[in-house]
UniProtKB/TrEMBL annotation:
Composition bias type Polar residues, residue spans: 1-14
Keyword Ligase attributed: no
Keywords for the protein's UniProt record, in alphabetical order: Hydrolase, One-carbon metabolism, Purine biosynthesis
Cited function: Catalyzes the hydrolysis of 10-formyltetrahydrofolate (formyl-FH4) to formate and tetrahydrofolate (FH4).
Protein's UniProt keywords contain Hydrolase: yes
Annotated region (Disordered), positions in chain: 1-20
Listed HAMAP family: PurU
Catalytic activities: (6R)-10-formyltetrahydrofolate + H2O = (6S)-5,6,7,8-tetrahydrofolate + formate + H(+)
Main EC class the enzyme belongs to: hydrolase
The family this protein is said to belong to: Belongs to the PurU family.
Name of protein: Formyltetrahydrofolate deformylase
An example Gene Ontology molecular-function term: formyltetrahydrofolate deformylase activity
Pathway: Purine metabolism; IMP biosynthesis via de novo pathway; formate from 10-formyl-5,6,7,8-tetrahydrofolate: step 1/1
């Protein structure tokens, strides 16, 4: 099977896929899949959808090698009555396509926004940006709660009409705090976003939360780890300030990267300037990562991601 990729060359953040929030979503399905590459995969998926009465709206695919690689595909289709037919459609696809091709897949409905919880601490820029974009319709998700280990942001969250839950957390009480958060999150959310949540998330928490987590941090790691990274970066004379959004794994800050961006700085920028510019980049990078996850654009492959 020959490789086919998106027509746009993704060399800058503005060239990444735009949001789909302006498109009609009723009866629109999203099918993400990956498996070992072999001839006939696109034909099998397309034939199945056609036989079920679905019309393919868009199809993006990628093979990691010309032969013997991993095949990945994202298909957007329209099928009248999708909500009622979804379970049967998923069963048929499993039997007729996924099992014969040893394929992993995910079938979702565009009309069902992801249920999202946001974890925060004291810094407000990422949290408020997500809430603001969601309110404006730029992020198609349902924010079901904000959990913070400090109460400082409660009044800022209130105007958005999202429940704010204060769960104190630090290393001495981490186990109890995570147990309380699991009681709130498990089974109730599809995604957890760490919007500058300044606490370590443990492996047991990740195993039991039941959904992916996305984190954001500055891109000075690992050179300037620990406290005051922007001051240390200024002392070192950095020329770029950036941010990284990634899925959370048990290995601290080493999960699959979803999105990154940078802004150039020079000797005229003080520490406060670096902090301000860093916050701007963090907001933009995190919002793009959350958008792409909520639009089912991301396929994880090992410790990497493919974003369609």
């Amino acid at each position: 099977m020959s490789e086919r990729t998106n027509t746009a060359t993704r060399t800058a953040s503005t060239e990444y896929p735009a949001g789909e929030t302006t498109l009609p979503v009723r009866d629109v399905g999203r099918l993400l899949l990956h498996c070992s590459d072999r001839p006939g995969l696109v034909a099998a998926v397309s034939a199945f959808l056609a036989a079920e009465g679905a019309n393919i709206v868009s199809l993006d695919q990628h093979s990691t090698q010309q032969t013997g690689g991993t095949f990945m595909q994202r298909t957007i289709f329209h099928l009248p009555g999708l909500s009622a037919a979804r379970d049967d459609l998923q069963r048929k696809f499993t039997e007729q396509v996924a099992e014969p091709f040893d394929m992993e897949f995910r079938l979702t409905e565009a009309a069902r926004p992801k249920r999202v919880a946001i974890l925060a601490s004291k810094e407000d820029h990422c949290l408020l940006d997500l809430l603001w974009r969601n309110r404006r319709g730029e992020l198609d998700m349902s924010v079901v709660m904000v959990i913070a280990n400090h109460a400082d942001l409660a009044e800022q969250v209130r105007p958005f009409g999202v429940p704010f839950i204060h769960v104190p957390a630090h290393k001495e009480i981490r186990e109890d705090a995570e147990r309380r958060m699991l009681d709130l999150l498990h089974g109730n959310v599809d995604l957890v976003v760490l919007a500058r949540y300044m606490q370590i998330v443990t492996a047991p928490f990740l195993e039991n939360v039941g959904c992916p987590l996305i984190n954001i941090h500055h891109s000075f790691l690992p050179a300037f780890i620990g406290a005051a990274p922007y001051r240390r970066a200024k002392e070192r004379g950095v020329k770029l300030v950036g941010a990284t959004a990634h899925y959370v794994t048990a290995d601290l800050d080493e999960g699959p990267i979803i999105e990154q961006d940078v802004v150039r700085v020079d000797h005229r920028h003080g520490v406060d300037d670096l902090v301000r510019l860093g916050a701007d980049v963090e907001r933009a990078v995190l919002s793009r990562a959350v958008l792409w996850h909520c639009e089912d654009r991301i396929i994880r492959r090992g410790n990497q991601t493919v974003v369609f």
